[in-house]
């Protein structure tokens, strides 16, 4: 399931994060890529070691975790530290799949990848996040403050930036539910029971769907 989430950050939140990033020391993005992704990764990044990045990470992580759509769609168990990337003209990230396992102890399974767009799409050319799919490529260039979450199983790339600067935050999630298909079923039931609740209050139908939602989570979630 691929979902876009508007307004993860409001204008004030965006301004604060971008001001913090302006103080950061962006380094070559190849430092955090796997051996095959390194071959096609050409961007700059701020990692958690940078103090500006630490503050930006705390703020954006908080905004993501408070976002209802983000939490319902990801069924977040844990998240890798955010990486802030800046693509200057000529930079791109060619086709790759994200590493399945991350962390120095190799204890983190990536189920979901996401990008939070941090600057105005009108301010740069190119830089679309492009997903490979059986029906062709899907391109995303979202407004500043919006996020896209997608299964980490997907081949994807970032088109070359030809003008201006593309600034984003990216990270990975280990979900309570490993399978994207199962997460989608749980998400759909959750959305449906909430719509029912808004329409009719706590009806018998709402109760049964809530029971099914809870029981599927019990069946499919992993520690
Ligand atoms: O910049 C993006 O939107 C995605 C970056 C990416 O694919 C990655 O860091 O693995
Ligand atoms: Fe990626």
Automatic annotation (TrEMBL):
GO terms for biological process: DNA damage response; intracellular iron ion homeostasis. Fe cation binds at residues 96, 98, 156. GO terms for molecular function: 2-oxoglutarate-dependent dioxygenase activity; iron ion binding; L-ascorbic acid binding. The keyword Metal-binding applies. InterPro entries: Oxoglu/Fe-dep_dioxygenase_dom, PKHD_C, PKHD_hydroxylase, Pro_4_hyd_alph, Pro_4_hyd_alph_FE2OG_OXY. Binds 1 Fe(2+) ion per subunit. It holds the Pfam family PKHD_C. Its cofactor is Fe(2+); L-ascorbate. The keyword Metal-binding applies. 2-oxoglutarate binds at residue 166. Gene3D superfamilies: q2cbj1_9rhob like domain, Rabenosyn, Rab binding domain. PROSITE patterns: FE2OG_OXY. It comes from the Bacteria. Residues 77-175 form the Fe2OG dioxygenase domain. Keywords: Dioxygenase, Iron, Metal-binding, Oxidoreductase, Vitamin C. PANTHER family: PKHD-TYPE HYDROXYLASE YBIX. This is Nuclease PIN.
